[in-house]
């Protein structure tokens, strides 16, 4: 019976990639062969950071077709441009707003308007949260509409925790085990209340608006790659299909990565999602009216967190100086969270994932220097997996690695950028009190939503925004304890 079960299990594993394609992808796109090679971290060769400047499309407003209607007043991004003869009270009335609401949402101090001035129009949820919106008793006894994402308690707590330095991974409105663990750490290790309703009220008090807005700028496209040409779906020559949709943009190949000068974001969606610590699928859910390739001037609804400003990451000087009066220490627990302490008090929590299966630390490690804008170098020599020989009577703690030969005569590089497999920051680690950096360290990730599931290159991954946080918190010499 056991033999039959083993055969059945093997058959299921072999057929899984056929019937469940999602299960077949276990490696970051483009790195299917590269994960088997040795890689070294290298500093950038230039202080330049980003793509060369290019001409960027800018959002054009829709022409007015129905004078006097609210729909005609709005552009594609809910922005109205003041025209000759406009008066604030008339604009507000036609948009079913009060003058007070329109002034509060646009931070207007007077009723005076200028021709060409742009006014942002609040969404129903944004309108509800304005102080100038009347709070009726009937509204307080009515359950919020299910589609109102901003009222999600999970979203509120994720935004609150993130702003407190307790990361829960890419923000969404759905709970997961990591969210639960981080919430528990905040409540217990920080000495906060374990009473959930009290914590929610505290989060509401601290987080006035769960969501904010962000207007995509032309300068942002220095970090966003031009879109690939989409491949049309093939059709028989005698049956043309004018409605054929383009196929999804394919993931990058290894050759595309090594021949690029900068590994930029692949779309404005990816840029904005990472800027606001957000899951890209959730960002699309928040902004259903935006197209596949939003242009400069597009207005996004985003989680209200401190933005990750990639354009401001300096090439040097990220690490702080050690302060003996407020010593820092850190732990990596169960290879799932980096926890940072100041004078014994927990001040930050960051999700961690390992780039290679089985990669672990032992005992105590030391933080060395930080490499910003890192590159990755390889000679395409196979990475040797050292396996300790154990028996009831003997353990070899230092197995001798097999000899491997490089394939290339000169190193090949993956260039810097947010989509480098080790992200935008690399933190060197050494064993205990040594000063020689290991081949793996703490670093960013090009796959923040999948950094704990997909195999890749590097060591212990953080999201790019958390890697930058960690670099700015951990001075050289900080001790890290590894805990199961």
Quick overview:
This protein is α+β, with helices and mostly antiparallel strands and 484 residues long. Helices cover 24% and strands 15% of the residues.
What report would you give on this structure?
This protein has helices at residues 2-19, 21-24, 70-73, 88-94, 99-105, 124-129, 137-140, 153-163, 177-189, 196-206, 254-259, 268-275, 280-286, 464-473; strands at 40-42, 79-81, 118-120, 211-215, 299-303, 328-333, 337-342, 345-351, 353-354, 364-372, 375-378, 412-414, 425-431, 442-443, 460-461, 479-483. By secondary structure, the protein is α+β, with helices and mostly antiparallel strands. Residues 1-24, 62-77, 136-151, 230-238 and 242-247 have low confidence and may be disordered. α8 (153-163) crosses α10. A hairpin with a 2-residue loop joins β7 and β8 (345-351).
Quote the CATH topology of the largest domain.
Answer: L,D-transpeptidase catalytic domain-like
What is the share of helical residues? Answer: 10-25%
- Radius of gyration over C-alpha positions, nearest whole angstrom: 26 Å
Tally of contiguous helical segments: 14
CATH superfamily of the largest domain: L,D-transpeptidase catalytic domain-like
User: Secondary-structure element order, as H and E?
Assistant: HHEHEHHEHHHHHEHHHEEEEEEEEEEEHE
The structure class reads: alpha+beta
């Amino acid at each position: 019976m056991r033999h039959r079960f083993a055969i059945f299990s093997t058959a299921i594993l072999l057929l899984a990639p056929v019937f469940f394609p999602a299960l077949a992808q276990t490696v970051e796109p483009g790195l299917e062969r590269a994960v088997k090679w040795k890689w070294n971290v290298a500093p950038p060769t230039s202080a330049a950071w980003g793509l060369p400047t290019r001409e960027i499309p800018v959002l054009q407003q829709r022409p007015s077709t129905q004078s006097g209607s609210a729909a005609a007043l709005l552009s594609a991004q809910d922005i109205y441009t003041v025209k000759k003869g406009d008066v604030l009270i008339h604009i507000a009335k036609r948009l079913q707003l009060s003058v007070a609401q329109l002034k509060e949402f646009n931070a207007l101090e007077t009723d005076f308007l200028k021709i060409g001035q742009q006014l942002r129009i609040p969404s129903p949820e944004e309108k509800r949260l304005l102080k100038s919106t009347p709070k009726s008793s009937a509204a307080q006894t009515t359950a919020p509409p299910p589609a109102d994402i901003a009222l999600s308690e999970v979203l509120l707590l994720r935004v609150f925790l993130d702003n407190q330095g307790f990361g829960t991974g890419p923000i969404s409105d759905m709970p997961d085990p990591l969210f639960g663990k981080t919430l528990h750490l905040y409540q217990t290790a920080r000495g906060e209340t374990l009473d959930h309703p009290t914590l929610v009220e505290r989060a509401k008090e601290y987080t006035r608006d769960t969501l904010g807005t962000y207007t995509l700028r032309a300068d942002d496209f220095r970090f966003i790659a031009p879109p690939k040409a989409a491949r049309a779906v093939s059709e028989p020559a005698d049956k043309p299909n004018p409605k054929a949709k383009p196929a999804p943009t394919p993931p990058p190949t290894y050759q595309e990565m090594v021949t690029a000068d900068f590994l930029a974001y692949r779309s404005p969606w990816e840029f904005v999602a990472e800027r606001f610590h957000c899951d890209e699928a959730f960002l699309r859910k928040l902004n259903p009216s935006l197209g596949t390739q939003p242009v400069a001037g597009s207005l996004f609804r985003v989680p209200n967190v401190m933005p990750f400003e990639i354009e401001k990451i300096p090439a040097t000087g990220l690490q702080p100086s050690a302060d003996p009066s407020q010593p820092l220490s850190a732990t990596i627990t169960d290879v799932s969270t980096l926890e940072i302490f100041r004078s014994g008090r927990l001040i930050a929590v960051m999700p961690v994932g390992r780039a290679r299966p089985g990669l672990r630390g032992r005992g105590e490690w030391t933080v060395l220097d930080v490499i910003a804008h890192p590159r990755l170098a390889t000679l395409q020599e196979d990475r040797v997996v050292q396996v300790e020989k154990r028996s009831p009577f003997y353990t070899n703690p230092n197995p001798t690695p097999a000899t491997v030969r490089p394939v290339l005569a000169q190193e090949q590089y993956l260039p810097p950028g947010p989509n480098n497999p080790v992200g935008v920051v690399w933190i060197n680690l050494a064993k205990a009190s040594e000063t020689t950096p290991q081949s793996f360290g703490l670093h960013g990730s090009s796959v923040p939503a999948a950094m704990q599931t997909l195999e890749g290159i590097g060591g212990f991954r953080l999201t790019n925004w958390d890697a930058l946080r960690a670099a700015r918190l951990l001075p050289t010499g900080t001790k890290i304890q590894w805990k199961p």
